[in-house]
Amino acid sequence: MKMTVLSILLALPLAAQAPAPKAPVPAPAAEPAVGAAMDGTYQWVPMQFIGAAEAMPEDKFDWAPSQGEFKGVKTFAQQIKHVSAVNFAMGAMILGEKPPAEVGDMEMGPDSLKTKAEIVKYMKDSFAYARKAIQSITAQNGSRPIKNPFGQGPDFTAIGMATLLAFHGMDHYGQMVEYLRMNGIVPPASRPRPKS
Q1: Which of 126, 168, 161 is nearest to 141 (CA)?
Q2: Which residue among 19, 110, 111, 136 is the one 20 to 30 A from 5 at the CA level?
Q3: What secondary structure letter does DSSP report for 109?
Q4: Rounded Cα gap, residues 156 and 134, in angstroms
């Protein structure tokens, strides 16, 4: 009995030094597809843009600054319709299909859209379509050439077109922010966040 107790007491320090069984190592997360990775960044464009569009009251949708260097610029509504038409047109180029909505004159967007509700719906649909197009980009089709929509210069790729969609939307978002501020409206993205 003394031998058994003594054996146990001598074995305890060795057991304490033995490595603990290792937990299974999780498999590395799969690398996101090219389109999913690009959309992870692009999703900020509609979030900012839609918030700015919805912040402008309907009675100011046709407003544009007219003094000084602003003479002849697009109205707030025309900014939205232009970006939305480009979203549909370039999204269709990425997907290799016809735009699912009217684009009209891409510079001004469809003339048929008059009310804030019509324009906002068109805009939201265009961003959903642009995101669908961007998400379709893969390592295999991302470098596929796409004819330059501007008629001059080199052709684009699907990845290049997705990049263009992002910076084009944010370029006009910056202009819309100025329009909001000139009308005493703080853009939603610049408003203080409630403390939690």
Answers
A1: 161
A2: 19
A3: B
A4: 14
* DSSP tag of 157: E
133 in Cβ contact with 94 (< 8 Å): yes
First to last CA, the chain: 65
Task: Report how many helices (DSSP H) and strands (DSSP E) the chain contains, helices first.
Answer: 6, 2
CA atoms within 13 A on the CB side of 184: 2
pTM of the model as a whole = 0.81
CA distances (Å), 89 to each of 101, 122, 193, in order? Answer: 9, 13, 35
**Nearest-5° Cα angle at 51, 49 to 53:** 70
Distance CA 42, CA 167 (A): 9
Q: Dump pLDDT digits (tens) for 94-128.
A: 999 999 999 999 999 999 999 999 999 999 999 99
